[in-house]
Amino acid sequence: MEGFIDAMEEFNIRLITTEEEFESVVINAMVKEGWRPGLKDAECYLACDPTGTFVGELNGTPIGFVFLAKYGENYGHIGCYLVRKEYRGKGYGLKIFNAALANVKPSRSIGLSALQDKEQMYQRSGFHSHFNGGRFVFHLPTAVVCFSESLEQSTVTVKCIDQVDQKALFVYDSSVFGFERRPLLSKWLRVYGRHAYVATKEGAIVGYVVARPTFVKEDGYKIGPLFADSESIAEMLLKALFEELLQQEKPLQWSG
Ligand SMILES: CC(C)(COP(=O)(O)OP(=O)(O)OC[C@H]1O[C@@H](n2cnc3c(N)ncnc32)[C@H](O)[C@@H]1OP(=O)(O)O)[C@@H](O)C(=O)NCCC(=O)NCCS
């Protein structure tokens, strides 16, 4: 890989630790790539792991980055892997990626969500596919009338997130996600502009959903996580969320 990089060029990899720089380097590049980051993602990501954002600089100019968040002792999550278009295919991305990996214990499990056309690339770094996911864009007025009356309506209650015990929510999240991620959630669940609902059944949490406004206002909101013990609970949560969002000033689209 070294052979691709001009020997006269100086390439360094360092951490991004301030929200200001995260926004100007990472968030702006994600917007250009059409990734629709959240309005306060810089705050959330840095709260999740202040030593997880690796940026590659060529002759002092940031050209690419990756975020590897350490969750607890045993898990790491990779996101925001991006190199500026004009610098792609020259070996810089892999260098940044490997620098981030080298920074965590080899015993840590690492996960990521990959675009389908990047599956083989990640396999070469030792990743295995576990499931296929989808990305959906909702037109709210159309979507909100599509939810059928839930069969579980009589037993499940949907509440605003502020009305439930946060610790119980952390426990529920870990049981679904597989690893504890309290530093991220502590910020994510309270971040500016968020809308969030929790479903409970006989007092126990059986699902929750969070939507956050996007960095580019016209992009609307992003939904995630949406965890639910059944499809009908997921529908109840989305319905409550969509109804609330419809009360807000008119966004153009909604993605989750
Ligand atoms: C994906 C991306 C970050 C890679 O950066 P890059 O600088 O172009 O990649 P490199 O030049 O370092 O790649 C060199 C080689 O390493 C491979 N490689 C790059 N990153 C890798 C990784 N994380 N694991 C394994 N292999 C990797 C490349 O496929 C390439 O292989 P090849 O020589 O056989 O074609 C860049 O192409 C990009 O920004 N793409 C658009 C955003 C995107 O799709 N991000 C990934 C989201 S899942």
Q: What does this molecule look like?
A:
- This is N-acetyltransferase domain-containing protein.
- InterPro entries: Acyl/Acetyltrans_Enzymes, Acyl_CoA_acyltransferase, GNAT_dom, YitH/HolE_GNAT.
- GO terms for molecular function: acyltransferase activity, transferring groups other than amino-acyl groups.
- It comes from Desmophyllum pertusum.
- Helix content is 31%, strand content 27%.
- It has helices at 19-32, 41-48, 92-102, 119-124, 140-144, 166-177, 182-188, 231-247; strands at residues 11-15, 53-58, 61-71, 75-83, 109-112, 137-138, 156-160, 195-201, 204-213, 221-228, 254-255.
- Helix 1 crosses helix 2 and helix 2 packs antiparallel against helix 7.
- It binds coenzyme A.
Report low-confidence residues grouped into runs of 5 or more. Answer: none
Mass-distribution shape: globular
Ligand roster: coenzyme A
Q: Measured on Cα atoms, how large is the radius of gyration? A: 20 Å
What is the helix fraction of residues, given as a range?
Answer: 25-40%
* Global structural class: alpha+beta
Percent of sequence in beta strands: 25-35%
Helix run count: 8
Q: Describe the biggest sheet?
A: 6 strands, mixed
Widest sheet, order of strands: 6-11-10-9-8-7
* CA distance, first residue to last residue: 36 Å
Q: State the order of secondary-structure elements, H for helix, E for strand.
A: EHHEEEHEHEHEHHEEEHE
What is the β-strand count?
11
Mean pLDDT: 92
Protein name: N-acetyltransferase domain-containing protein
Organism: Desmophyllum pertusum
Domain N-acetyltransferase: 11-152
GO molecular function, one term: acyltransferase activity, transferring groups other than amino-acyl groups
